[in-house]
Amino acid sequence: xxxxxxxxxxxxxxxxxxxxxxxxxxxxxxxxxxxxxxxxxxxxxxxxxxxxxxxxxxxxxxxxxxxxxxxxxxxxxxxxxxxxxxxxxxxxxxxxxxxxxxxxxxxxxxxxxxxxxxxxxxxxxxxxxxxxx
Length: 133
Hints:
Residues 65-114 form the RING-type domain. Pfam families: zf-HC5HC2H. Residues 1-50 form the PHD-type domain. This protein is an alpha+beta fold. It contains two helices and six strands, in the order ββββββαα. It has helices at 93-103, 117-125, and strands at 13-14, 23-24, 35-36, 44-45, 80-82, 90-92. A hairpin with an 8-residue loop joins strand 1 (13-14) and strand 2. 28% of the residues are buried.
């Protein structure tokens, strides 16, 4: 299968949405805005069918990522996420992914409100890989 992100052959991950035949390589997923869920059925979605956060909030002006302290932009997006529990903790996808890899499943929580369950489930659904170590 050709990868819809890079165009090279050998793409082995196909979007889970019925009727969608987009395939991609795992390393191309982030560049293509794809989401791969690393739990349960290990489903993957292309940029068009990926899950989105249901939280209806926008960051205040000059809001920064709680991890890297760089600006997060003016809305939720693939690369900008918010805690579903407190709705005040904003961070970049890449920053929260690094945090998850560093702390692991049993210590992963919202950097602001320390919520564990809602935060963890939302991050897993949004494609953040959280190792069990």
